[in-house]
Amino acid sequence: MPELPEVETMCRGIREIVGRQVASVSQPRCRYRPISITPRLASIKKRTQGQTVSKIWRLGKRVVIDVGSDSLILQPKMTGLVSLQSVPDPDHVRLRMEFSGRPPLTLQFWDRRGLGTVELLKQAEVQSRIVDGRLGPDALSIEFEDFSRRLAATGRSIKVALLDQKLLAGVGNLYASEMLHAARIHPEARCARLSVHRKRRLYAAMQSILDLAIRYEGSTLADGTYRNALNDPGSYQNQHAVYDRAGLPCPTCGKDILRIVQAQRSTFYCPRCQAR
DNA sequence: CATATGTCCTGAGAGC
DNA sequence: TGCTCTCAGGACATAT
């Protein structure tokens, strides 16, 4: 489930294509239902082949490749992977791009579940089509005052609010549980009632956990699909205090971790460290 | 407007 | 062994 740290790691892993020309774009034959690619592949080829990659950047949980005057936006969603290395299997490669130069490079967008998407937009359209109305400030660049104000303005529980990309971009289910544990806040706490003191703790935990997870090159879970730039698993999963650890002892206090469901998603927390 | 729910998809694992 | 069922969750569409 690529979240901010995993997507950031993917971006760093493909940065070698900056300055390269797109030699070809193709959609490998696949027995699965095709993922959403817009506009159609023929248009993408026409607009990108022969063009030069100028920049790779992350927009929330999306990988953005600026090529020519366009931005190619890859959204891995649940099981997607963007890599210049080999991918877990050839069967789920959804898009392939070859780059000329030495050595030749091949970028693959691999996605087992196929919920991911590919979109090519004019660079000038990215703000209006992707950001406006859909994405809040990035979790790594938001200022505390803004973070605090945005939380104060919603009546939802803190865990559910952290997953809202319009409120804050980049945090997903795994890191939301982890940062709440680090900040010692109960996942069902109402945002609007959180003290400034607690919000400061959460803000600090968010920055340090996302930073650390990027340094560990993300989390590779049991299904093993996510890989870093070198095609190795990330290692942040070994640092998880609560995520997917129901029934195991809290690393801080030893009490059993609990699992609850909020908005149809699993939440993990320590009932002692994160008392109401 | 804010918030809640249903949906897409495939593969792993449980249970029988 | 092999079948069926459930579950994982990001983000969007639709409903309240």
Summed up:
By secondary structure, the protein is α+β, with helices and mostly antiparallel strands.
Question: What class, by secondary structure content?
Answer: alpha+beta
Report how far apart the termini are.
28 Å
Determine the mean pLDDT: 93
> Order of strands across the widest beta sheet?
2-9-5-4-3
Strand content: 15-25%
Radius of gyration: 20 Å
Extract low-pLDDT stretches. none
What are the SSEs and their pairings?
Layout: H1 4-13, E1 22-26, E2 36-38, H2 41-48, E3 53-59, E4 62-67, E5 70-75, E6 80-83, E7 93-99, E8 105-111, E9 117-122, H3 126-131, H4 144-152, H5 158-162, H6 173-183, H7 196-215, E10 258-262, E11 265-269
Parallel strand pairs: 2-9
Antiparallel strand pairs: 1-7, 3-4, 4-5, 5-9, 6-8, 7-8, 10-11
Helix pairs in contact: 1-7, 6-7
The protein binds a DNA duplex (16 and 16 nucleotides) through loops.
Describe this entry's structure for a reader.
With 276 residues, the protein is an alpha+beta fold. 25% of the residues lie in helices and 22% in strands. It contains 7 helices and 11 strands. The protein has helices at residues 4-13, 41-48, 126-131, 144-152, 158-162, 173-183, 196-215, and strands spanning 22-26, 36-38, 53-59, 62-67, 70-75, 80-83, 93-99, 105-111, 117-122, 258-262, 265-269. The strands form 3 sheets. A 5-stranded mixed β-sheet has the order 2-9-5-4-3. A hairpin with a 2-residue loop joins strand 4 (62-67) and strand 5 (70-75). The chain is globular, with a radius of gyration of 20 Å. The mean pLDDT is 93. The structure holds a DNA duplex (16 and 16 nucleotides).
